[in-house]
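Table S2 (text version). Query chain:
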Amino acid sequence: MSRLHEGGPAPGLLAEASYDVAEVSLEPGELVAMVTDGVTEAMSPDEREFGDDRVCETLRAMTGASAPLVLRGLVAAADEWAGGGGFSDDLTALILKAR
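Corresponding structure-token output:
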């Protein structure tokens, strides 16, 4: 698993935003996952963040699943982490799977 560090602000957030470009080759079955800070900053009842590492662990655990199942699993994991009490920010994720 690798993380892309190129980019910029969330698409559509700023009218005049510019973005760094990177190119990645995907093998069949590999995923691209994009999440907002609402996912990584989901708080547990004892006020710990879900975090990047937990997002990656969740994605690794779902290797082989379809993109819709990975998305549902990620949201469910963040919801469980938050204790089912909801989120203080938007929870947005996009999962793409190479064929």
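Notes on Table S2: The radius of gyration is 14 Å. The chain has a mean pLDDT of 90.
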